[in-house]
Amino acid sequence: MPRLSWWRTLFYLNVLVLFLVVFYKIYLHFFEQDYGAVHADQVERIESALYGQDVFSFAVVGNINNSVGIFERKIIPELNRSEVEFVVSAGNAVSSGGEDKYRALHRTLGHFAKPYLLTFGDNEYGAFGGFRYYDHYGPYVFAFSAGNSRFIFLDSSGKTSFRWQARWLEEELEVRPNDNIFIFVGHPLLPVDKKGIFDFDDEYLADEEFRKLLMPIFADARVKAVFSSNLPLYSVQKSNHTSFVVTGGAGGLVLNTNRSFYHFVKVHVNRDQVTIEPVRLNVGQYKLFRTVESVWFFIHSLFYVGYLNYLLFVCCLVVSAYWLHSLLWKERDYYPDFNQPSDPDLGRPINVAMFTNNYLPFIGGVPVSIYRLSSVLRKMGHKVVIFAPRYERDDHPRDGNDVFRLSCFFQRAADKGIVVPNIFSVSAIRKAREFSPDVIHIHHPFWMGTLGLWIARRLKVPVVYTYHTRLEHFSYAVPVPKALFRNFLSHALVRRLGNRCNAIVVPTEASESYLRMIGVKIPVFVVPTGIETDRFGSCTEKEKSRLREELGIGSDELVLLTVSRLSVEKNIDFMLEAVSGLAKKCSKKFKFILIGEGPEREHLCQLAEKFGLRDLVIFSGAVPPERMPVYYSLGNVFVFASTSETQGMVILEAMASGMPVVAIRASGIDDFVADGITGFKTGQHTAAWAEKVQLLLEDDTLRQKLSGQATSRAGRFGIDEFGRRIERVYAHVLSN
To answer: How far apart are CA 605 and CA 176, in angstroms?
Structure first.
């Protein structure tokens, strides 16, 4: 409990900080105004204050560096109390040229009761600060006259041409020949004794070219002083009649020694006499206070760098607050709810709405599974409406009030099962409301699945999702980088939608393991899709003979059979390559029938030609579901090579028809094919796969044995048992 109290306190503190941050941002947005052309106003104030005077004082400071603790709280009050008429920064008033630093400086300088001016120094220029200085204060190079003096500001950063400045300065000195001249330039023009201060390199000096251009000009006796910053100390040197003053004691890091101390420089002008003296300030900060000031300044500056950082900061606080709230008040019970029945029973007919991205007449595993499930549920007394896309020239006889078709945005790839139904259909939403489902069952983790989930939330009914398809194997069909879809997007899509449902149905334990591994937390039920076992193995010899004759299969030829969409993920290339090798070794005559249609048909036909299988392979195309039992009856061995199945229903159908199976070991296969009992599973090696097929073709006794065992095992997966198990899933979500 004490630990929980600490978390609770932290949560409330987080919420308080979040409130203060939002409030402070609103305050800054509405009450702190933008500013510009500051120097124009300040110069006007200085000229007005010194009008007609030849006796006055001003102060020069350097290296303010956004120091709130020293400059704002200690030095500005001293300057406001002093007799100086105005204050000049000799450079480095900001710690860097970011917008946040400029705005913070403006707030600090707002505490001055006297006019002030800023020299364009190294820090003002850094971090793309040049244009900010120009916008907020004015040109980097400027001059004005006040009293009996001329004040000239130069740019030592290199942003303004040195040669142009030297020429401009010579002309400036001719404006009022009797004036005292004071020059402000950010970088020192003469080397300074740095002993005992810091091991600065020579970059603290102005550029050598600039110095060579300026020094001859300063031989003019009217140039009383040149002020610079860039070092945390006070230094004055004489050259001819000019004092070269370095001042850096207005903030930042100062050592408080005999040479490095907090100070400002007071300049007193009495006609043509000028006195310059440092005013040492008995101020300083302990290390702790400097650290606190730095942290505060960082937080303070966050609000000036634009809304992006601000929003990121607020989002972090929101996420933290949400996490703490769930930690403190969201109860978690990881044990089953023993107040609920472990095997609930519906006890009444219910209404089930199913949402699917594809359905009959498109032939595929998902449409067939949905058709079988809806049929058995109706047989058990429940009402089912299937929401599915409307295909062009769709006149499927099974449609009626039980299937609601949505118009499609486009279906140019309808033959591939890729259509885009209009999930914004008002009539579909109206139909769902009128039907009033007790449960919504979705069959895809996107598009129509999203519509089903949205409607379920509005109708406040539970959602069941059947995980039919391994999406990562369809990376070839999506317009994003294939590796990105395979490795991340496909799994994230399944996880995100799955965790928003009330239960997930999977056909195999391998699929359940996959869902748990990617982070699905909700209940998962393993329910293999059932088949109508009584439909298989009951064809007459007359029907079989007629079909064999129609397909051109001789009476002495055995039949390898597969049922699959002709698409990349079904791995049919593998089987054709393996069969080409098998044809050269097998002692028995055989034909290979491929039942199905798809986008790879032309490619596969060309591949069969390449392998010399023109007379061996039969592409039968799509076969209506009602005709499938007679096709299955022709097969002696069922072959399969897909590695993308969640459940190979066609494998169960083949087993129910009495065919042993040879397949590649993969998800959706292991749960149904018992190696050496109902067929064989191999690795993805054509020679090993073909070897097992050859064994079954040539060994009649083994083939008959495995055939009987396959039929027996398939009998466990009848359609009625499938319906009962799905009914229990519905009962579970309704009871909770």
So the answer is: 97
Structure tokens at 315: 């989002």
Range of the domain at 293: 1-33+287-332
Do 265 and 362 have their domain in common? no
H-assigned helices in 330-485: 365-379, 426-435, 448-459, 482-484
Distance CA 604, CA 597 (A): 11
Query: Would you give the distance in Å from CA 328 to the centre of its chain?
Result: 28
Within a domain: 339: no
Other Cβ atoms within 10 Å of 259 Cβ, number: 17
401 and 514 in a single domain? The answer is yes
Which CATH number characterizes residue 612's domain?
A: 3.40.50.2000
Q: What SS3 state is found at 541? A: helix
Radius of gyration (C-alpha) of the chain in whole angstroms? 43
Instruction: Estimate the crossing angle of helix 686-698 against helix 572-585, to 10 degrees.
Output: 50
Q: Per the structure, how many domains does the chain have?
A: 4
In this structure, are 546 and 507 located in the same domain? no
As a whole number of angstroms, the distance between CA 241 and CA 225 comes to 9
200 phi/psi in degrees, rounded to 5: -70, 145
* CATH number of 117's domain: 3.60.21.10
Nearest Cα residue to 40 out of 121, 142, 112 = 142
Residue type, 612: G
Under 8 Å between Cβ of 153 and 143:
yes
Q: Is residue 722 part of a domain?
A: no
Q: What is the pLDDT of residues 445-470, one digit of tens each?
A: 888 999 999 999 999 999 999 998 88
Dihedral angle of Cα 293, 296, 298, 303, to the nearest 10 degrees: -140
Q: pLDDT for 222-242, tens place per residue? A: 899 999 998 889 999 998 889
Other C-beta atoms closer than 10 Å to the C-beta of 651 total 27
Q: Above 70 in pLDDT, residue 438? A: yes
Cis peptide before 528 (omega within 30 of 0): no
